[in-house]
Amino acid sequence: MKTGRAAGRLPGRARLVLAGELVSSMGSGATVPYLVIYLHTVRGAGLAAVGVMLTVRAVLAIIGAAAGGTATDRVGARTVAVAGLGMAGLASVVAAAAGGPMIGFAAVAACTFACAALAPALDTLLARTVGTDLRPTLFGWRNAAVNLGGAAGAALASIAVATAGPTTGLIALYIVDGLSFAVFAVLIAAVVRGNATPVEAAVREDGRGGYGAVARDPAMRWTCAIVLLAVAGGFAVFHVGLPAFVAAAGLDVRALGWAFAANMVGVVVLQVPLQRLLPGRRRAGALGAALALMAAAWVLLLAAGASEAFVLVTAGLVFAAAETLFIPLVSTVVNDLATPGLRGRYNGAQTVAWTGGFLVGAAGTGAIVGAGAVGLLFPAGIAVLLIGALATVRLGRLLPGKMVHIPHAGGRTEQPEEQTQTGLLDRAERERDAGDHEAAERTVRSAIAGCRAAADPAGRIAAQTMLGGLWRITGRYRRAGLLLRLTLAAAEQRFGPDSPAVAAVCNEWAVLGKYTGGFDRAEALYRRALDILRAEHGERHDSVATLYHNLGGLAHARGEHAQGEPWARRAVELRTDVLGPDHPVVAAEHVAWAALLDGCGEHARAEGLLRRALAVFEAAPAPNHYDIAVVRNNLAAIHHRRGELDAAVDEYHLALAAKERLLGADHPDCATTLVNLAAAHEAGDRPAAAARLYARAAAILEPLVAPDHPTLCIARAGAEHTTEMMFERVGGGV
User: What are phi and psi of 282, to 5 degrees?
Assistant: First the structure.
């Protein structure tokens, strides 16, 4: 899909917000480059005081970005954007009218804080106007608009300062800057209707979520690290280090101006051709290429020398290509990773990383120049950028499967995020995870209908796979099996037999097979999915860990504990490496591993893993009560094997009550706990209670699973045996 055509399909409100960005960037481009001159020449602050002011300004920008992210999630992106723009506009007007250095700095500081706070709000506002398929295009054009506006503003400032002098010219420019903020605020207030404030499902009201929830996302942590390194070694060196190098080397300053001009023009001109190359490519690879291009610009300056204007201009163009790749990709990754309830904070974290990287890069540049080692400036930048490029490899292993590749621009851009097919499936996932299966099914059915209407087979296959999983979760096994069989055939025909979409259907159908007793087919499907995902992502990917977990779970269902234990152990090792030892997902892997270790006779080791997992689950900001129920069921089994029957019965009852509350009393997952509880009663010489529980488990499973399903066979045999025990006792009593 051509990027120019994709830009034409951006929603009208998105285009108007971009127009506002263009106008506002003109104002900022006219004032920010002259900030030191404004504070020193116009307002009379000493150069030492200006240095302190700039440091305070940078700290305020970090605080403002963090505060803006929180405010965006709490009161809405529209409100924060309008308020921030209004505050920035007022501060600019005050800067124009200020009578001394302190008032002038206070106005500049207020404007800085406001701009930093509204940055995550604007990112959130833009991200919500389109689906994931058009976000790269949207953020790409946003970057072009900001650069074009900045270039126009810089040209306007040059004319104003040259014509009216620094004092009069800069005062007029700050008034223009204030007006540009006001125009942008009016555009947002008029065009964007409502805040679309999300319910903070991922953040508890007591505040234990917030930025802590963002920090627990490993992909987001690595994204922020990459941003910080790219800004410190690339953007800060370009905007601060390069001028310092030119000044220290006594080079022609006019050549520097041409380099900056070439960079700004290059960003605008290269936007379309570079964005055309991206769809279908790996995001992490494209980010790594962007950092490599930044390093290439510094290699060029080292190899050819920076004494010629042509070399500086070429380096500016190379850096423009890197910037055009990097900025839209990072913004897209952040917003695709974000959950709706935390999108403002995700964007706030990105802004903090940008500001922090610039602060670190500027400080490093100052230290190098101050030490008289200007020759080390570019080698240091190259080293930092290469570290960032290596970090993109790790990020590629952490990105969810649907985010690995850059999407092709689709044609559904007039819908807000929650109404696109991708947005609907994301919402269905949240509803499913919250236990609202009816709402999740309605949402998935809406997504399927939308995909049919839009002739989107890829989206329909993903939605049908999710629907099959929902039917499995709610115990409708036969219906799920039929749907997944048809969906697998459609995925193979559409994408070929070795695509990740086929692997997703294979995995879901195999999970169903474990529950219904179709173990051989389930193993074949799991292994096929594993082969596909290993070839696609390599050994150290999250989706591969999922298959390891599932193969271990299948072996446990078969009673083949020794064969399943290595699979579970590999899943634990991989998840721990990716997520850290205290992540709830790692705790869930410990639970699965413990079940297999217990079957292998390693009861003490299994109990240790279970109790550790239980502590992680119960300490989570939003505890998953189903996971807690599973742990209690497995701890009860250990008590049972030790002969601690009263403790086992108590734990089984707690687990059963939780499952019945979460899933319903007739859910097939309750049958496993019913059988375990019945066995504990049987071992405690309570055959009547055991017989009732066995019979109930069999009644749940008989319509749903194969006749030779192990749990069903145990339930039937147990019911028969305990009934015979009761008759024998009655006969003996007579």
Answer: -70, 135
